[in-house]
C-alpha cells in the first residue's frame, strides 16, 4: 500500500510536463572550452596564433604576419596554409601561403613573413586552407 501512495504522490505533484531526458552517464568527463575548440578545429588547432604585427616606425610602413605552430600529433609534420587579409568592406588586400616544415611532435615553431599592407587597422586575417602532412 505504501508503494501505491508514493506513486500517487509523485504523479499528483507533477506539473504535467511529460518530456523525458536520458540520465547523465557517471563516466562522462566534461572537456574544457580549449579542448572542445581544438577538437572541432582538428589539425588546424596546431596553428596556435596567426596575426599581423605592425613594426612601422618613423613613417616607414613595416607590417608582418607572425605565427606559432605546436605539433600536437605523434609524427614529425609539415604545415602549409593559405591566408588572406581583408578590410572592413570584405575587400582582399593581400593573400599568401605560409610553410612550416619538419616540426617534431610536441615542438613549437614560430615564423614571420613581410607583407605589403600599409596598416593593420580594420584588417582581418582569414585562413582559407590549412594542411598538415607527415614528414618522412
Q: Cα distance, first to last residue?
A: 74 Å
Neighbour order of strands in the largest sheet: 1-2-5
Q: How many helices does DSSP assign? A: 2
Tell me how many strands there are.
6
- Give the rounded overall mean pLDDT: 79
Determine Rg (CA atoms, Å).
Answer: 26 Å
Report the order of strands and helices.
HHEEEEEE
- The oligomeric state is single chain
Find the structural class using helix and strand composition.
alpha+beta
Overall 3D form: elongated
**Biggest sheet descriptor:** 3 strands, antiparallel
Work out the helicity level: 10-25%
Strand content: 35-45%
Q: Give start-end ranges of low-pLDDT stretches.
A: 1-29, 34-38
Keywords:
alpha+beta, disordered N terminus, 136 residues, 2 helices, three-stranded antiparallel sheet
Question: Could you explain the architecture of this structure?
Answer:
This protein has helices at residues 2-13, 33-41, and strands spanning 47-54, 63-70, 77-86, 92-103, 108-114, 124-134. β3 (77-86) and β4 form a beta hairpin. With 136 residues, the chain is an alpha+beta fold. The chain contains two helices and six strands, in the order ααββββββ.
Topology readout:
Blueprint: H1 2-13, H2 33-41, E1 47-54, E2 63-70, E3 77-86, E4 92-103, E5 108-114, E6 124-134
Quick description:
This protein is α+β, with helices and mostly antiparallel strands.
Amino acid at each position: 500500500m505504501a508503494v501505491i501512495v508514493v506513486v500517487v504522490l509523485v504523479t499528483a505533484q507533477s506539473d504535467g510536463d511529460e518530456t523525458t531526458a536520458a540520465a547523465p552517464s557517471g563516466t562522462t568527463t566534461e572537456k574544457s572550452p580549449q579542448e572542445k575548440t581544438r577538437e572541432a578545429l582538428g589539425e588546424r588547432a596546431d596553428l596556435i596564433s596567426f596575426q599581423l604585427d605592425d613594426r612601422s616606425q618613423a613613417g616607414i610602413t613595416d607590417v608582418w604576419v607572425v605565427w606559432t605552430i605546436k605539433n600536437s600529433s605523434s609524427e614529425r609534420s609539415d604545415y602549409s596554409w593559405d591566408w588572406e587579409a581583408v578590410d572592413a568592406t570584405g575587400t582582399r588586400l593581400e593573400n599568401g601561403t605560409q610553410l612550416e616544415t619538419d616540426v617534431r611532435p610536441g615542438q613549437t615553431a614560430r615564423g614571420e613573413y613581410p607583407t605589403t599592407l600599409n596598416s593593420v587597422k580594420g584588417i582581418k586575417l582569414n585562413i582559407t586552407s590549412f594542411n598538415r602532412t607527415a614528414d618522412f
